Amino acid sequence: MPRRALLIGISQYDAPQLADLPGCLLDVDEMERVLSRHGNDDEETNFDCIPLITHETSRVDRATLRRTLKETFNNYEDEILLYFTGHGLLDYSGGFIVAQDGAQNDPGILMQEIYEMAQQSKSSTITIILDCCNAGAFGQVGSSNLPMRDGMTVMGSSRADQTSSMSPTGMSVFTSLMVEALEGGAANTRGHVTTSSIYAYVDASLGEWAQRPIYKSHARRVEPIRKCKPVCSDKLLREIATYFPDPNDTYQLTRKYEETEPDHDPAKVEIFQKMKKYQVSGLVRPVDPNQLHLYWVAMQSERIQLTTLGQFYHSLVSGPKPRI
Known about the structure:
- By secondary structure, the chain is α/β, with parallel strands linked by helices.
- It folds into two domains: 3-227, 3-Layer(aba) Sandwich (Rossmann fold); 234-318, Arc Repressor Mutant, subunit A.
- The chain is built from ten helices and 16 strands.
- The chain has helices spanning 23-36, 62-74, 111-120, 173-185, 195-206, 234-238, 240-243, 266-280, 294-299, 308-318, and strands at residues 3-9, 47-53, 80-85, 88-91, 94-103, 106-110, 126-131, 140-141, 144-145, 152-156, 192-193, 214-218, 226-227, 250-252, 284-286, 303-306.
- The protein has a six-stranded mixed sheet, with helices on both faces.
- Strand 5 and strand 6 form a beta hairpin.
- Helix 1 (23-36) packs parallel to helix 4 (173-185) and helix 2 (62-74) runs parallel beside helix 3 (111-120).
- The model has no long low-confidence stretch (mean pLDDT 94).
């Protein structure tokens, strides 16, 4: 059964005091683009994306929101991702995602209600992403965080007492950074993008902005949200123990590894290309700390060694139960 993603974007509001947010439609379009398929060579299907957006022929009012949320959480046992972009609001009752027909005293759906739906869902894994003002109020009562069920992760664009910003492109700042992360900015050596790596990417990118993202998780395992094309394929990673039988071994390069040398060895040139990919991925480095380029390591017949990250992947591929 494919993973399911409900993508909610509310760009139009009935109440005159609530500004329309046309960029939310672009937010949903971009999230659907990066979530519907993986970014690896196969471009395999990822999430079955279900957009729920405001436009001329449909409304996203409170009744529609509540019904769609219930259908999503109650009738699906595989992985669920919920994404919302629009207005958020915080009052004495708690945090709300504001519906199209939201009014001052009845803004929309309480975040607490969505939290309860997620808590009771039979879905194996639930990821909730809120791009709205006061997003950090989700799963929170006062200043205290509520316990989360196994397999649940929440990301928000701002803390409970903060607003969220739009970017010059029309998209929100938070979603535009998430899209960058999902396109590969937050990918690890294997090309996997996880919720934790997305959060780290967004948090670092926002720097000193007043808007601070939030991340709460009780995940059993950190599974990839999206797979991107890696510099090192799993096949290449599995070969690392061939060249470094022991994680503390070194590997000597010579001029025969460099294809521009008259007496180069084609088999060694092929190995050298792999070593360059290992270096770009942060898996190997010259033994000489003053040496930066593998070309000169080869020209001077010097050695390379695994980095700490390289030793980690070595342990994954050479252990009693390889995990790659």
